Amino acid sequence: MERARLWKSSVPVAANLLLGIPAVVPLFLIWYLLSNYPLADLGWTQREPTENDGILPGLIIAVPVVGVFGIVWALLNLWMRDRLSAGASASTYWTLAAALTLAPYGLLIAFG
């Protein structure tokens, strides 16, 4: 019985870490748009010198990519939360899921 419980608790951890690998693309798109437009207008970042198309082409690409990833991530975590992790509270589960999904991006930033 203990072995099945360990397996059930490690599946969401592994799944969210693996989801973090493709999450690099939507997270990069979000950072690219933020750093080139609103943060650059505030003076917090410098705009990319070759970025002269405006924000619309970036939004046309970023919104579907981020939306599809967000839907897949949320549906998969809803399914795993209902079936695999009975002991964790909802806030703990979602916080841990988000942190594990962001971990590969954070490692890429730290060591890239």
UniProtKB/TrEMBL annotation:
- Domain of life per record: Bacteria
Q: Provide the alphabetized UniProt keywords.
A: Membrane, Transmembrane, Transmembrane helix
| Transmembrane intervals | 12-34, 54-79, 91-111
Q: What is this protein called?
A: Integral membrane protein
Organism equals Streptomyces violaceoruber
